[in-house]
Specification:
- It is a single chain.
- 80% of the residues lie in helices and 0% in strands.
- It has 400 residues and is mainly alpha-helical.
- Helix 1 packs antiparallel against helix 7.
- 56% of the residues are buried.
- The protein folds into 2 domains: 176 residues, MFS general substrate transporter like domains (Growth Hormone, Chain: A); 198 residues, Growth Hormone, Chain: A, CATH 1.20.1250.
- This is MFS transporter.
- One of its GO terms (cellular component) is plasma membrane.
- Keywords: Cell membrane, Membrane, Transmembrane, Transmembrane helix, Transport.
- One of its GO terms (molecular function) is transmembrane transporter activity.
Length: 400
């Protein structure tokens, strides 16, 4: 509930700033660059964030991140009320906020993971994604109303205040006590160990590679919604809000049924189906001739994206013991951030030269070709297997 309130504020800011940058610059590359700056820190800082989350008290560490993000949002709010908002300032704040989020989110994700049994982690991850996407439904709607009535400053103020809901929620959460038998690793040794485990586990390696290509080739549809609504469909802030809301509605709907789907098909097989269908749905979305058709398409695309990404995320954490879960989550975030920041900027830059529809359709086709090729060359990787955690020994002085 705390994260939901915060995400409503975050999506109010995201929509408001996306519309502001698109209308101010008129360039898809600028919109894509601002989005990329939020995810770029994950490329470098994510492994450090995971190691720190496994090293310190996760609840206190996540609370520190919420305080810092509230402070950055507050700076943006003050500048907006004073009429000093600009695209470079938005880019800088987005980058700094991305740094804080990258360093502290692994603690939040690992905190959620330790509150449920391993066999319910996929469902837990999906429900967490559901609240995130419920924020995607409510936030853009409130953003559209706020922009129409009073401008972007009030949307930014709402985001600033929303972080306090996370602090209240964290104060009420009682995590499991740490196992005193598990010794604390030196920081850089912990980072290296996390990377080594991910590299040596074939399932985790495959999941991380898949995550990168999803993020780079398909996921930019999220950040480029304002460009699609304004430039391709000839609409404005209300249309941007509608498309973002429909994507969130699709994701929430999928989250309610993902547990049943995973039990029916198996997590790995479900992941394979979702990877194949997302490329097709992405192509259909980019071909949508009207706002109404695009809204329906992005609903199903958002549902498919939720199923695929929650499966990929849960697979990383479910393969390792508790003391490594934050590090696996941080590696997942690093790959996701690297692929998404590269993809959304690159597709935005190409869209200014070759057209958004052509570029997005091409990347969707490339992703579909990669998935089909993998299915033909390594069909066993798409079959169902057990979801037991990997046999990874806890850290000890001798293993170090």
């Amino acid at each position: 509930m705390g994260a939901l309130i915060s995400n409503i504020g975050t999506w109010m800011e995201t929509v408001a700033m996306g519309v502001y940058v698109t209308q101010t610059t008129g360039r898809a590359e600028s919109t894509g660059a601002i989005v990329a700056l939020s995810f770029l820190p994950a490329v470098i800082l994510a492994p450090l964030g995971g190691a720190l989350a496994d090293r310190f008290d996760r609840r206190a560490y996540a609370a520190l991140g919420a305080v810092l993000q509230a402070a950055l949002a507050g700076i943006l709010t003050v500048l907006a009320f004073r009429g000093q908002l600009s695209v470079p300032v938005i880019g800088l704040i987005s980058f700094l906020s991305g740094c804080v989020s990258t360093l502290t989110y692994p603690a939040f994700g690992a905190l959620l993971a330790e509150l449920v049994p391993p066999d319910e982690l996929h469902l837990s991850t999906s429900l967490n994604s559901a609240q995130f996407n419920l924020g995607r439904i409510l936030g853009p709607t409130l953003a559209a109303l706020t922009l129409q009535v009073s401008g972007p400053a009030w949307a930014l103020l709402a985001n600033t205040l929303s972080f306090f809901a996370v602090l209240v929620a964290l104060s009420r959460v009682v995590p499991r006590p740490r196992d005193p038998a598990v010794k604390r690793e030196p920081l850089w040794a912990g980072i290296r160990r996390g990377v080594t485990v991910a590299r040596d586990d074939e399932d985790i390696s495959l999941v991380l590679v898949a995550t990168f290509f999803v993020a780079a080739l398909v996921a930019p549809f999220i950040g480029l919604v304002p460009v699609f609504a304004i430039r391709e469909l000839g609409q404005g802030a209300a249309a941007t809000s509608l498309l973002v809301t429909c994507q969130g509605a699709g994701a929430v709907t999928a989250a309610l049924g993902v547990g049943t789907l995973a039990e029916t098909f198996g997590q790995r097989r479900l992941r394979g189906y979702a990877a194949t269908s997302i490329a097709v749905l992405s192509g259909i979305y980019w071909l949508a001739p009207t706002l109404q058709v695009a809204a329906v398409c992005i609903f199903f695309l958002g549902a498919n994206y939720l199923v695929l990404m929650s499966s990929l995320s849960a697979s990383c954490q479910n393969r390792v013991p508790r003391e490594l879960q934050a590090r696996m989550g941080s590696l997942y975030s690093m790959v996701l951030g690297a692929g998404y920041s590269l993809g959304v900027w690159f597709q935005g830059a190409l869209a200014d030269r070759s057209g958004l529809r052509f570029v997005a359709l091409s990347t969707s086709a490339i992703f579909l070709a990669l998935v089909l090729t993998t299915r033909m060359l390594r069909p066993a990787r798409f079959e169902n297997v057990r979801l037991a955690q990997a046999e990874v020994q806890p850290f000890s002085d001798s293993s170090h």
